[in-house]
Every structure is written in structure tokens, then in C-alpha cells.
Amino acid sequence: MTIAGALLIGFLLIGLLVAGILLFRPVKQKVPDEPFPKKWSALLEEHVNFYRRLDPAEKERFERWVQSFLLNCEITGIGVEVEDLDRLLVASSAAIPIFGFPNWTRYPNLREVLLYPDTFSDDTFATEGEDRDVLGMVGWGYMNGKMILSKPALRLGFEQTGRSNVGIHEFVHLLDKSDGSTDGLPEYLLDRQYAIPWLELIRKEMEAIREGESEVGDYGSTSPGEFLAVAAEFFFQRPHHLEKEHPELFEMLERIFKQDLS
């Protein structure tokens, strides 16, 4: 190898090293330095059932988490206006699943949430044309680090009293993905001794869905990852009903999310 070639390789290696440092260095998280706006508290009280059930100290902690999330994650409208309510509902969707983990301060695998005007395609993310049946998804490929939510679906999840909430669903996927795999086994959340019982319960519950013997949504039977997300929606939206109809599942979800909703 010539001296020039060796120098070129050396410069390339140094360049890659510098790029890696810049790309993967920890991002300092912004911390709120202003009081939580009273009008935001009023919006949470009106629109977020989970928030209404909290005591005053818990509400204050929820508000701090929401405010921090909004400082550190961009929420961008694609063909829609993003109002304060939309931003608060996205942040609430993020806060609810991790509220039992006070030290979990952010979603490191998320930089931006995109709000779409309607359903979209899961392969091209198009909002026009056929095959637009997706309400929300965690981005992959060039969309990695982003989440897409239908704005109408996001709002509907907090307006209705059913068991569905697309915002919570997608943030549970992010939690599941934080260990490297969206497989229904959130290793960072679930104590190791419960892993095998949880996987066995998933198998049993997915079979019950397929046989029409479960109130967990049909989409939960498509994969273990989808089962976790769909069951979590049910858990946070209608906890008492889930506890009555599926006590074993309810108890395991309490262990996973470290929250007592009974």
C-alpha cells in the first residue's frame, strides 16, 4: 500500500469516528423551567380519563412528564393544524404506559411524532389512494425515530369510552421495541421470572381471540407484539372491565406496567 493510500484510509477512519461520535452521542434532555400552564391542566382534566383518576401529587408528576416530553419531541402536522390539545394527547399517550416507572424520563428511540389528517398506507405512508387503513405506526427504515398518528384517531381514542386508543397502542410498541425487538416481551419492563408465564398467557389469549372467546380486540391475535399493544389499550382504557373479564391478563399487565388500576 502506498503512503497516499494509507493516509486516505486513515482520514476515512477518522471521519467515520467523528461522524459516529456526532451521531450517537447522548442528547442532553431539556428540562422544563416554567410552570405547567393552567389551560393545559384544564384540557387534561377534560379529555384524559387517566389524568382525572390521579391524586393531586400524581397529577403534578404527570404534568411534569408531559411538559418534558413536549420540550424534547417534535410534533408536526402533515396537512393538519396541531393544536395544544393534540400535543397534550400525544404526550399523554406517551406518559400513561410508563407512569409506573418514575425514572423513565423519555423515549430515546423517538424524535418526532407526525400527525396525519386521516388513515394512511403502511408501506408508502400515503394519505391518498387505496389501501389506507392504518391509524398509527412506529416508523421504520428512513422513518426510524418517528411515529405517525392519524389526528382524528388520536382524538377519538380519548373521547370515547371503549377499549381502543391508538396513541397508547403505538407508544406501547415503542416500549416493546426498546429492547431491540417488537415481540410482545418488553424485557425492560417485565421482571425476568414472569417472562415465560407471560409468553404462555399470550399464546393462550391469542387462541381465545381466534376462537371468539375473548373481549380483547381481534387485531391482538395477529402477533405477540400486537397482542401486548391491544391488551394495553384495554388495560388503560377500561381497567375494571378487563379485571372482571380477564383477571389473569389484568394481573400480568399490572406487573408489566407497575400500575395498580384495580
Report what the structure shows.
This protein is 52% helix and 6% strand. The protein has two domains: 29-159, Glucose-regulated metallo-peptidase M90, N-terminal domain (Cyclin A, domain 1), CATH 1.10.472.150; 179-262, no CATH class. The chain has 262 residues and is an alpha/beta fold. The protein has eleven helices and four strands. Strands 1-2-4-3 form a four-stranded mixed sheet. Helix 5 crosses helix 7, helix 7 (166-177) crosses helix 9 and helix 10 crosses helix 11. Residues 4-25 have low confidence and may be disordered. The protein is globular.
The largest pleated sheet is described as: 4 strands, mixed
Global geometry: globular
Helix-strand makeup class: alpha/beta
User: Count of helices?
Assistant: 11
Distance between the termini: 71 Å
Strand adjacency order, main sheet: 1-2-4-3
Features:
single chain, 262 residues, alpha/beta, Cyclin A, domain 1, four-stranded mixed sheet, 52% helix, 6% strand
Helix and strand arrangement:
Elements: H1 3-24, H2 38-47, H3 49-52, H4 56-72, E1 74-77, H5 84-98, E2 112-116, E3 136-138, E4 146-150, H6 151-159, H7 166-177, H8 195-210, H9 224-237, H10 239-245, H11 247-257
Parallel strand pairs: 1-2, 2-4
Antiparallel strand pairs: 3-4
Helix pairs in contact: 2-5, 4-5, 5-7, 7-9, 9-10, 10-11
Short description:
This protein has 262 residues and is an alpha/beta fold. It has helices at 3-24, 38-47, 49-52, 56-72, 84-98, 151-159, 166-177, 195-210, 224-237, 239-245, 247-257; strands at residues 74-77, 112-116, 136-138, 146-150. Strands 1-2-4-3 form a four-stranded mixed β-sheet.
